[in-house]
Amino acid sequence: MDPVAEHQLLLTRRHFFHRSGASLGLAALASLVSRDAQAASGLPGLPHFTPRAKRVIYLFQHGAPSQLDLFDYKPGLQKVKGQDLPDSVRMGQRLTGMTAYQANYPTAPSVFQFSQHGQSGMWISELLPHTGRVADELCLVKSLHTDAINHDPAVTFLQTGAQLAGRPSIGAWISYGLGSESQDLPAFVVMVSQGGGASQALADRQWGSGFLPTRFQGVQFRSGADPVLYLSDPEGYDSAARRRFLDDLARLNELKLQDYQDPEISTRIAQYEMAFRMQRSVPELTDLSKEPESTFELYGPDSRKPGSYAANCILARRLAERGVRFIQLFHRGWDQHGNLPREIRGQCLQTDQASAALVQDLKQRGLLDQTLVVWGGEFGRTVYCQGTMTETNYGRDHHPRCFAVWMAGGGLKGGLTWGETDDFSYNIIRHPMDVHDLHATILHCLGVDHTRLTFKYQGRHHRLTDVHGHVVEGLLAKDQVSR
Amino acid sequence: MRAAGVALWIAWPALAAAQTTVEFNRDVRPILSDKCFLCHGPDAAAKRVPRRLDSEAAAKADRAGIRAVVDGRPDQSELIRRITSADAAYRMPPASSGFQLTAAEIQTLRHWIAQGARWQPHWAFLPPKRPALPKVKNTSWPRNPIDALVLNRLEREGLRPSPGAGRETLLRRVSLDLTGLPPTPAEIDAFLEDRSPHAYEKVVDRLLASPRYGERMAARWLDAARYADTNGYQYDGERVMWRWRDWVIEAFNRNQPFDRFTLDQIAGDLLPRATLEQKMATGFSRNHRGNTEDGIVPEEYRVEYAVDRLETAFTVFQGLTLGCARCHNHKYDPFSQKEFYQVYAYFNNVPELGRAMKYGNSPPLVAAPTREQQRQLDQLNGRIRILDEQVDETVPAGFAPPPGSFWAPASELDRAFLFESPGEAKARGGEPSYVAGRAGQAASLDGKTYLEADGAAAFDIDERFTLAAWVNPEAALDGAVLTRMTEGPRGKGFGVYLNRGKVHVHITSSYDDDAIRLDTEETLEAGRWRHLGVTYTGSRLADGIQVYLDGRAVKVKVEIDTLYRPFRNAGRVFREPFRIGGGAGPQRRFRGLVDEVRIWARVLADDEMAALAAPLETLAGKPERRRILRWYYLDHAAPDSTREAWRSLTALHREREKLERSFPTVMVMTDMEPPRPTHVLQRGLYNKPGEKVEPGVPAALGSLPPGAPNNRLGLAQWLIHSANPLLGRVTVNRFWQMYFGAGLVRTVEDFGLQGDWPSHPELLDWLATEFVRSGWDVKGLQKLIVTSATYRQSSRATPELLQRDPENRLLARGPRFRLPAEMVRDQALLAAGLLKEKLGGPSVKPYQPEGLWKDLIMQDMYYVQSKGDDLYRRGLYTFWKRTVAPPMMANFDAANREVCVVRQSRTNTPLQALNLMNDLTFVEAARFVGQRMIREGGPDPASRLRHGFRLVAGRAPAPRELDYLHGNLQYHLGYFTAGDRAKAYLRHGDSPADPGLEPRELAAYAAVASLLLNLDETVSKE
Fold it and tell me: Which of B798, B889, B911 is the best residue to mutate to test the A interface, defined by the most A CB atoms within 10 Å of its own CB?
């Protein structure tokens, strides 16, 4: 749908309020506008078909976790340990500038033990004991691949469907297409946690709206006094004063509206009301003090630390409960070029329990079948060692040709392992799935045909999946749609 | 689908109602382009689609008895049959395309064919024609031709223009539009009192003459030119492009004609005798992002930079989406992929690396002193010239220094090791012996021992330095001579070596791909003294290194030239000592004699190098002899007064060197000679070069003007040539958008086939031709627009008008929309009396919530908030970090500065409400507005409130508004009585509250002021 039509739609809504506004009280006007314009109902005609999931929680593992040490079990590598990666495997694929000059490429098997989990017998590393316990909920894809070999373009590709910045992020697309279910929270919320390990830079455009209107961009929730920028009233100014302030502001704006008839004014009145509601709802949301002890036990000790990945996972569940459409966590610190065994252990300690707890928690609350949880990074890591390899230590460079993500809930098959890589976890030999396919599949779960969610910009009907993408039917549970 | 129908209805209500003439360009092509050309367009071959509909000949051609379009016969036209077929397999567009035609669109196509299927070339590719001014009924309304053209349309639509805006409203509107700042109460009074018929024109002239005008115009230009203070991508380190930004402000302020403005930015460097300003202007094409990530394949990004230049230039100056033809032929516009690469060739010729410098500007660049620095430099040069004459004492005939004397420059000497006395350096790996050397004693090194000194030569890769020494190698002819680097092979740092007899110089941050390495062609011999010198300009390029042997510059072979990270990378301190004879591990220690080691923190001149290499008596007959002898004489033998002057002169030279070192730089365009070959890149991929192409412009857009060189300069000349149909139209349209919120062509970025049909085609062409006729007079154009009756209308809408034309495309009322981000902030600061106006300079870091950068950055780049005046500069000077945009700007829809953005976007969100209510900037500004209300507003609340209202909203409040404000004030006076509320509320911000005012009262007025700053009217242009 193009901006003109979109604008028309808004105007029609606003017209209604405008016309009726004169005869309604201020408060009534505000509540009417807000219910409609704010909890914006998305585009007409969407969802295109009955959705399997109403929302997405995307647990972005930023920096790229090693598939070889977490999910892609390759026992055969022990036999070729330290030997050069055969040319027949590498096939001249490009390497990053960091290892392109290496004299040799010694094969580094994982030092971690793998075992089978759940009824499906899914292979998972000892680093992820908690994830192992929810294996039957997981739809594990071992055959995702990407075009980018460096962090910024790879994250941008995962987030926007293009390697170069400028396109809307997936959350922005979804909030543009489907709108929000929440009266008093944004449709797209982002939280960033620090892994403390090898952290890569992140950028706020990764949740930006690109060429979509900026109201569809992700709103970052941060730990601390102001969970949303500028949320708190200044010191010395309390909520009652703010209420009075807003009432008088609305009165003055209403005079202007009567005089000028500009529908933007009624929207502004409504947005101030929304802001006021956010001032209450966000602190209530981010205040975990009323969570029972069992919650913190479930999500692990880290979850008591505000701003930690685990605390953010609890917040993700609370956001899901409140109808936020797209919730995205970024956990930094997975970029293990060196000292991988030690570093990855730390990252897993920070993320494993909470990720699994989130799945479990959503399930026990009956939210999992309407919530799609996605866990994954921006690419995989190489089977060959970067830098010096010893008995117990190695590093891994970026590897775009295969990596593992898991998804859960949202109408996907649980206990499914999808795709297969070669003996070196280097090339995909079964069910390759590219980033566009992942996007198409996520949109499909939300009831959106990825070829029909478009926005005209610079003369082109843009989509998240550009001109690519196929829904991976094999991941979808049969006949399951959300309630 | 529905969209197009609605759009038509807005623009052409008449069409839906009654049958009028269908016009191909206006009515038909948009449908064909949007719904059909993706397959049946210029890139039809790619889809193996036989029938093209983008050319008349193809559409009407008879193919096996079938014609898509038969003039006058819709029912015989295959096009109509296909789009109306009930058979889904036969119907166009196919379901799989996702496109559908509405009944109205089908009707339009049918009528068009019935009316004869008249084809037209795409309007925007034809030169603008100056229309005859239409006759209008209401002859009293138009003030200039803009109005006649607008009114003509209104009258056709049966609409009347709105009455003129009130004087206060109009003054605020035009002040914001031309300077980005609202009028002060004094300016309002002056305008209200001036009842002369030219009062408004006088205001316009005053505003256009204000330096604020350049700042206001520059703000949008920075969006278009994706100007920022960091590199973007992963690490997103700082760059320094504000001299380019200041050039833009100046160019607008001195009203540089737009054609020259264009020419300078595209190709200023290629103009004959290009000035510094013209070179700086080309920074336009270097404002793109630069990737510094370790692992990248640099060529991939070098290609992206050239593409970005092309896309930006064509969006800004041509309103075309040429970038769409990068991977395949354009789907809509008549541009082939090959033509894309022909244009790309113009921008593909910069001597650059795909990997940008991690810190600071990436070459090519120029030193760009500010006016003040240039003034200081001129002054210094003047003083140097005078002193030079004073010390121009000729060396007395027969003056001869003692045999064996050398002259060595003392200025900026960092350290010297002459080996005449102990303690200059620490010995390592044993004790060197000292033997007779080139001058006095020399150090004799045996391949194990070396000397070490802390703190010497502590230069980083972006600093200038000179190293010099006498060496006399033993037969090994290998090893470290002078180094500052980690003690091991493939280490980090810089050094001068002997490498199989050749002199090897390197500067290394990481051995494989982050280094400069070069060798002399000449080979040294064992057992012979040679003087060795190396200068480095800090350019971070091999080009910046010069090797001297025996005082003469020698040829070198560059092995690698891809340095990009400093030694101080990632916040680390580089602590290595300076070493003589060591510094690459035990295997590479020097064996032989070393003497007279000197280090300077500057680049020595050729003559100075020559002096170091030869005792004065051996200079006889050499051209540099006179100067060197003079230096020696002035240093050692001249009369006291002369030597005094000579010392002052040396000090001045040092001062000049320091000044020059402090000059900011600007990344600029330069062309390589011979040019880099350009190939079509298959699917747009850097590593899939195809056919080689020569530079050229797309055939559909004409050809270079006669006599123009086929390079960037020629391209620029083509852009500004009178035959170019687009530059004028696109430019006036962008300005129009600034005033009215939308362009006459709403798609300001796309004048191609997918672009919008202009709401007022004749007006667009009239403005475009008028702009050219006026000599591209930018201020003149602004004046023309803001003095039109169209602009001066009231922006009040009636329900009828809102229904009829919700977006104000027909211009039956004045513009009303929210201010751009930087204006919202600047206005609050001005009303508060806090705004610190200063043109240009380095970007500043105003208040920003804590930790925003820290959450996302990798390392060593922290937001250090500015202090004092720099907290209150205008928004266009706010430091723009690409990966963490200034939050207030982002909240208020500022362009992202990642890529070129010319289309304005405006949203209305709760985050904006929170921002205005609670951002420290606005809380503090509100307090200062409150302060002014009390201090300047008279004794009673009503006059104070009135004053505040005028400060913020630029008009006197109506009685009811005053009532509400009064109620609000009363509430707050009560509210702030309690506890410490007032004290707490007055504490926000760096500027303290007026201690002479009663806290409760001040806080209450501050709260009311905050209310004023939050009014819809305040953040809107009305």
Answer: B911
The first and second tokens of residue A164, run together, are: 């170069």
- Among A341, A324, A325, residue whose Cα is nearest residue A381: A341
Q: Which amino acid is at B813?
A: R
Task: Please give the residue of chain A at the shortest CA–CA distance from B33.
Answer: A459
Q: Is the peptide bond before A47 cis (omega within 30 degrees of 0)?
A: yes
In A, minimum Cα distance to B860 occurs at: A201
Cα–Cα dist A25/A23, whole Å: 7
Q: Is the entire prediction scored with pTM above 0.95?
A: no
Q: Which amino acid is at B851?
A: G
Instruction: Please say whether the beta carbons of A129 and A354 come within 8 A.
Output: no
**DSSP state, A423?**
T
The DSSP symbol for A101 reads: T
Q: Which domains does chain B have, with CATH numbers?
A: 2-120 (no CATH), 389-434+447-538+554-661 (2.60.120.200), 918-1021 (no CATH)
Which ipTM score applies to this complex? 0.92
Q: Is A18 helix (H, G, I), strand (E, B) or coil?
A: helix
- pLDDT tens track for B799-822: 889 889 999 999 999 999 999 999
Residue pair A188/A325 in contact by the 8 Å Cβ criterion: yes
Helices (H), B518-584: none
Strand partners, B483: B495, B579
Q: Give how far Cα B1011 sits from Cα of A242, B302, B916, Å.
A: 10, 50, 9
Cβ contact (<8 Å) for A458 and B750? yes
Residue B168 vs residues A97, A325, B184, B464: alpha-carbon distances, Å = 62, 45, 11, 58
Which chain B residues have a beta carbon less than 8 Å from that of A94? 297, 687
CB-CB neighbours of B525 under 10 Å:
11
Burial B25-48 (b: 16+ CB within 10 A, else e): bbbbbbbbbbbbbbbbbbbbeeee
Verify whether the Cβ–Cβ distance A236 to B1003 is below 8 Å. Answer: yes
Closest alpha carbon to B410 in B246, B585, B611: B611
Q: What length is written for chain B? A: 1022
Q: CA A461 from chain center: how many Å?
A: 24
Of B524, B427, B430, whose CA–CA distance to B471 is shortest? B524
- Give the pLDDT band (50/70/90) at residue B19: low
User: A133 vs chain B: nearest CA distance in angstroms?
Assistant: 32
Strands A138-145 and A416-418: parallel
Q: Alpha helix locations (H) across B703-795?
A: 712-720, 727-740, 761-773, 778-786
Give the DSSP H/E element, type plus range, for residue B285: none
Handedness of CA B541, B542, B548, B552 (dihedral sign): negative
How many angstroms separate the CA atoms of B12 and A161, rounded?
A: 37
For the domain covering A39-223+306-475, report its CATH number.
3.40.720
- Report whether B226 contacts B353 (CB < 8 A): no
Question: Which residues from chain A sit within 8 angstroms of residue B975, using beta carbons?
Answer: 240-241, 244
Domain definitions of chain A by residue range: 39-223+306-475
∠ CA A161-A167-A168, rounded to 5°: 90
Distances (CA, A) of B373 to A417, B250, B405, B694, B901: 66, 17, 39, 42, 33
- Taking Cα atoms as reference points, which of B931, B971, B930, B998 lies closest to residue A241? B971
Q: B385-438: per-residue pLDDT in tens? A: 999 888 876 788 888 889 889 999 999 999 999 999 888 999 999 999 999 999
Q: What is the pLDDT of residues B696-721, one digit of tens each?
A: 999 999 999 999 999 999 999 999 99
Q: How many CB atoms lie within 10 A of CB A25?
A: 9
Partner residues linked to A124 by β-bridges: A115
Q: Residue B716 and residue B705: Cα distance in Å, rounded?
A: 10
Length of chain A: 483
